[in-house]
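Troubleshooting log. The previous run stalled partway through. Resubmitting the same three chains, unchanged.
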Amino acid sequence: MKILSKLFIVITSIALAFSTTACGTGSQKSSGHVVQLVYWNMWTSTWETLVGKLVDQFNAAHPNIHVTMLSVPSNADTKLLTAIASGDPPDVFTEWNPTLGEYAQRDAILPLDQFMVGKYSGLKDWLYPIVNKYGSYNGKLYGLGMSMNTFMLFYNKEMFQQAGLDPNKPPKTIAQLDADQSKLWKIDSQGTIHRIGFYPSWYEVWAPTWNVKMYQGGKYDMNNSNALKLMDWLNWYGKQYPATQVNAFTSNFGNATAGDPFVGGEEAFQINGMWELPTITQYAPHLKYGVTPLPAPPGGQNNSTWVNGNFNIIPKFSKHPKEAFEFIAWMAGYDNQQWAAKSLPLGGWIPASPKIAELPAYQQFLDGNPYRKEFAAIMNSPGDDITPITPAQQFYETKLGDAASSVLEQKKSPAQALSGAQKEVQDEYSTDMKSPY
Amino acid sequence: MSTPTALSVRTRTHRRKTILQSIFKHFFLIVCSVAFLIPFIWMISTSLKPDSEILVWPPQWIPHPFQWSNYPQALTFVPFFRYFLNTLLYGVSTVVGTALSCTIVAYGFARIEWPERNFLFALMLATMMLPYQALMIPLFLLFRALGWTGTFLPLIVPSFFGNAFFIFLLRQFFKTIPQALVDAARIDGCSEFRIFAQIILPLAKPAIATVALFQFINAWNDFLGPIIYLNSQSMYTISLGLQDFLGSYGSQWGYLMAASVTATLPIIILFFFTQKTFIQGITLTGIK
Amino acid sequence: MATSNGLDPSVAAQHKEPSRMSRRNRWIGYLFIAPWLVGFLVFGLYPFLASLFYSFTSYDIFTPARWFGLHNYTHLFAHDPLFWTSLWNTLYYTIFMVPIGAVIGIIIALILNMKVKGMAGYRTIYYLPTILPMVASSILWIWLFNPSFGIINSLLRLVHIHGPGWLFDPNWVKPSMIIMSLWGVGGTVIIYLAGLQDVPQELYESADLDGAKWYHKIRYVTLPMISPVIFFNVIMGLIGSFQYFTQAFVMTQGGPDNSSLFYALYLYQQAFQYFHMGYASAMAWVLFVIILLATLLVFRTSAKWVYYGGER
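Second attempt completed without errors. Output:
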């Protein structure tokens, strides 16, 4: 009797399993004249809802293409890899990790130049130069930017006043920044930190202002003189402020664990993107703050920023690359600029093209906050730069981060840290360039 | 025999000792329980707070006010009920598959002797020693070739073919059952299968219940399998749904904790009420 | 117990047609393990052999693998300091986790086996950590371990101890993870509990008659009788600890300063971040050999302390 009931459960379970599986299929086939596109991204939570609405609008505007979106909340790169490796990838993927060079070198994604014909032939020129650079490898465009980020220095005006600094005169030079921030730390007698003035834990974001070019002439050059100067600057901070204390303090409020130290008053300065503005409005509406471009050292690039963002790629083996390209061009706002000018503000994003930024709908968004204009304007600055697009990108960023940490922790000298990183990254890069193996 | 007075003294001191022992046991249990419970209490506390009150200093244990709305909002923000059903399906079917296959295989390894047995047992253990990260791609390619990617099949079907961890566990339990029982049955002319079904299985109920519980929880919390093999949101499981509350620009902690508590509750209830199966007394006397 | 011809059964088995007996046994044996064997041949063999093959190649997942001979292995041993770092991190974790986990697990199981009121509730509490989704427990522990604001250091401050940097201190990140793993000991406790049920009551009774104290009973009755289960947990603990990955991946990503770069995490990075699938496969097989040797070692010693009540 017991065995019978067990069997019954087995059979029902299997039946249920099959009925569910029948509802979901890995590869979408076109039905009739409607091309089915599979689109994966990593957006979760409210962002997922937002992008979902954008996709719905695309579907409504394109009766012959239907995009199904899948949010992959974690391990998305691994999922993408296995899918491409098995010949069954999504048609479009929104990426924001530094993987473009790797994917392009290994032919895992399609170059988009082949689709930039007909009405799309002006696409490259339509983009911000930096967005074009951000998505290119070996002279071809592989990733079409969708929503970009620029970075500026936020500062707390109240803390300035309390420390006797002029809240309307934020630092414009590195020397000024160093001087100002030194008055803003709050450390108690036992060495526990209660407020950080400024701490340069992120090396790469400073590279454009300090004129640091890590990759030149086909190879990495991580210990050039400007790179060393920037690392020396980090070293100065490392000497003054013990890294373990700082890390412990900042850890509680980093992206990984949420909570915002600038909003919470734990930092006087913070480097952040435009999305910080609504956060402040929501969580600390009475906070008196200002925004200024990253200060530059003597001989550096004033008014510039490091740029990153989300870009769309079309994996190899996509069954409908042409339609996929239509989709990503539309999401970038190419032939529907008015729409983009209205929808990009929903995510607080900077568009991929200055043409969109100029439109009244987007300008209206910029007017909503005095600093938005600056974030958008700096997108066109000639001094802007990005992380070098090579197959060793991820490795490079990891090693660079390690080097910066070791200097801040006073474990290595700037020269040691950078030359060590240089050797490792260059070796990795050389190996990667021998691919396809 | 002791005199009555000596006996009553002994009983009194014995009773005092038992009471003391009992107090000590309770004290120890409660103190340790607190240590084990702290994270869970924090989780419940967080699930009832608005996000702005979660990461404050000093930490607030008691929410002020109790934001019960986190629960209905979290559970509707993602299609929680759908995920719940999917996860239930996944859990139940793998439990069935595991229970069926692992018991049978474990009996083979435990109680039947044949020359290649030990080698095969070692081989089975060896399959657990290669990190799964190295197997992910070939395994995925295999399932792709079978056409199973995008469905639950890669997650459910292998459970019907045994699981080395559980087979090993059950084998250990089966080996503790006296050989005499098995021999007697063999002499009586029982087929191996009858011995297995009617003698071994009933005696190993706690072990089998353990296997069932573990497998269910494995499936309930499994993240990697579903994320790699499922390609449509309507098939997602709870563990994937929970990840949805984490965003790269700030996460919804209150919702995440509320959803986690809700996801954990069924299992807690299941475990609490099925304790008897784990802890039933077995008498191995009277093997006649 | 006599056979039809009056012989002792075990003797009969030895004398009467051994080849037919073993042939029958073999046939039955294979039948019973057929589910696993078939599953292994279908789902297990190909990935295993494939990864072994990849370990001798240069393979970046997208383009066909190219033969590389022993290059991956030599690079691993001679040119990769992170290999040794990650191996050391994993060994550190294993050496502490396995014995401590076993001891604590047994102790808690013994306690939970007692007849105390409300035991079902206590057992549920100790098992709770293993039920929690990984996402939730990781975040909880990040908060708990926070050096400035976390509960743990706050409690330490109450007794005037300046707590360490936990997840941010290279010297403390591994102990932090061991503590987290020990919090999840409930799983092994359940297994021990199941094993404790199988200890025949008469053994305790006769020990009582001999005047044994509770620690005698534990040492001479309980532990030997649950030694098969202890053996299981030690072996599985070993195999699992060597492959420790998820917490490090979710919480620290190997930091600070690679002090929590466990072997499996480094393997994952090599495979899925740097696209060195061949190299990662070589790493996998090196770990395989290490785990195999460690397991064999424990198996060798098992004859001395593992006692199967079912057979002599």
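Takeaways: The interface with chain A takes residues 58-66, 139, 142-143, 146-149, 162, 165, 167-169, 255-258, 272-275 of chain C (CB under 8 Å). Confidence is low (pLDDT under 50) at residues 1-8, 11-16 of chain C.
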